[in-house]
């Protein structure tokens, strides 16, 4: 099993609509590397990751986004509340992607 690790700062933004999903967009260079190295086996092209903001770490998936040519990381409310971050704020994020080559 291999692991890719990324550290970046991204602004949290609210997806338009009723659902109220909050995302961070990965840097395009990181997304390009993930797209190139990680086999696409899951629905919608999603990739399993472990994400960290501050002291909070959680397992989730990132999802490809054609509009930004990148991946979107969903940031759930419990994470935002615990870390005291909100939409419009730029936050440091660590992302680990484990995959079978």
Distance between the termini: 7 Å
Helix-strand string:
EEHEEEHE
Low-confidence stretches: none
Specify the helix fraction band. Answer: 10-25%
Total helix count?
2
Q: What is the name of the CATH architecture?
A: Beta Barrel
CATH superfamily: AF2212/PG0164-like
Mean pLDDT: 93
% residues in beta strands: over 45%
Query: Mind telling me the C-alpha Rg?
Result: 13 Å
Total E-strand runs: 6
Please state how the strands of the largest beta sheet are arranged side by side: 1-2-5-4-3-6
Text of the CATH class: Mainly Beta
Describe the 3D structure.
This protein has 101 residues and is of the alpha+beta class. The chain starts with a strand and ends with a strand. The relative contact order is 0.35. It is 17% helix and 49% strand. The protein has one domain (2-99): AF2212/PG0164-like (Elongation Factor Tu (Ef-tu), domain 3). The radius of gyration is 13 Å and the shape is globular. The chain contains two helices and six strands. Strands 1-2-5-4-3-6 form a six-stranded antiparallel barrel. The chain has helices spanning 28-37, 77-83, and strands at residues 2-14, 22-25, 47-53, 56-65, 70-74, 90-99.
